[in-house]
Amino acid sequence: MATIESGGVTFEVDExxxxxxxxxxxxxxxxxxxxxxxxxxxxxxxxxKVITVLQEYYEKNGIAPMVRVLSKVTGFKLKHIYELFxxxxxxxxxxxxxxxxxxxxx
Length: 106
Known about the structure:
By secondary structure, the chain is mainly alpha-helical. The chain has helices spanning 28-38, 45-61, 67-74, 78-84, 88-96; strands at 2-6, 9-13. The mean pLDDT is 93.
């Protein structure tokens, strides 16, 4: 695994830039790193709602939710999730939430 540094904290990441250890990704330094990679200027309450839903679902089920589940639980249409996370719910939102790279249709 490769390593990256953000805010004085070093993270191990896989070949696609997803964090190696979920617990390490639940911090501001990781979110700031992904935010900058995604080109997001400021994290809003809507960003944080998506991140929280992803983390809670992952902690309960061990996988990321399907897109329609994420949309239903957050109340956000898929188009809006893409507006929040330009690279999408799988790459951008899951990465920012510290989840491993999704294997299915997120």
